[in-house]
Amino acid sequence: MEAGKLGKQLKNLKQMNSKKGMTLVEIVASLAILSLVMILLISVYGASINLIRSSGTQKNSNKNAASGIENAIGGFDPDAGISIVNRQSGVFTVRFSGATIDSPGNYVAGSDASGGSKLHYFNPN
After folding, report:
1. CA triple 39-42-44, angle to 5 deg
2. Within 10 Å of residue 59's Cβ, how many Cβ atoms?
3. Which of 77, 73, 63 is nearest to 121 (CA)?
4. Backbone angles phi, psi at 74, to 5 degrees
5. Secondary element (H or E) of residue 74
6. Distances (CA, A) of 23 to 8, 30, 32
7. Cβ neighbours of residue 115 under 8 Å, at least 6 residues apart?
8. CB neighbours (10 Å) of residue 61?
9. Given this model, what pLDDT does residue 20 score?
């Protein structure tokens, strides 16, 4: 009986050693799938970096335009290299269904020097 068990164990061991590894086709297919996944991840990463960079630029543009308006309202000269401010007097009119509200005052428009951000401010009299 012992010889029968030993023979089965040797047969199983021979079968395990006779199994081959991955074929070249399987390796090439797995590398192709891996490369497609990597291309997708790299493109998503690049797009997120561009989005972060552009949002930072927009934030700086808004800050420069707001600084110019605040300096103009405070009576200081806005820095022409950072922001452009235009002032004008006028009437701000709001029309609802059948009702009109007019408010005279000063309108201040500011933008950063590159023109990427425009802010508006109205100060009623």
Report:
1. 110
2. 11
3. 73
4. -75, -5
5. none
6. 28, 11, 14
7. none
8. 21
9. 66
Q: Output Rg (C-alpha) for the chain, integer angstroms.
A: 36
Tokens, residue 53: 């960079």
DSSP reduced 3-state for 86: strand
HSE-up of residue 69 (Cα within 13 Å, Cβ side): 21
Q: Which helix (H) or strand (E) holds 7?
A: helix 2-18
Q: Which helix (H) or strand (E) holds 63?
A: helix 24-73
What does each of the 125 residues of the chain score in pLDDT, given as a tens digit? 566 676 677 677 666 655 667 788 989 999 999 999 999 999 999 999 999 999 988 898 888 888 888 888 888 877 767 888 888 888 888 898 889 999 999 888 888 888 778 888 888 88
SS3 75: coil
Assigned token pair, 8 = 């089965």
Contact 125, 104 (CB under 8 A): yes
Give dist(CA 40, CA 45) in Å, integer: 9
